[in-house]
Amino acid sequence: MTVINTKNAPAAIGPYVQGVNMGNMVITSGQLPVDPLTGMMSAAIEVQTFQSLENVRAIVEAAGFTVANIMKTTVFVKDLNDFSAVNVVYEAFFTKYGAPFPARSCIEVARLPKDAKIEIEAIAVV
For the whole model, what pTM was predicted? Predict the structure, then answer.
């Protein structure tokens, strides 16, 4: 197992790593919608969704994988009323990278770190 650490995704805010590379599999930690360059987070669910996905992409790519290698995501949302807006961005993201849609779970949660509206984790396999 190799720890993944990239400046292209936000640093972990607790005792965990951005992701781990198991050789043929990458498992990311949940990615908040924090811009790694500014440390800021938009209030808009669409922007938050895109940023969380971009953070996942950065970790997967740091391990030498691509978006097309993502086989499973788990999406945590603060409000399931945002489900449709999240889906629009999610679909556009995977389409942009020419990747098939992965298996996915979407779960409403009471609260997320930094009061984010979304957090996304992924498993990628080669």
Answer: 0.98
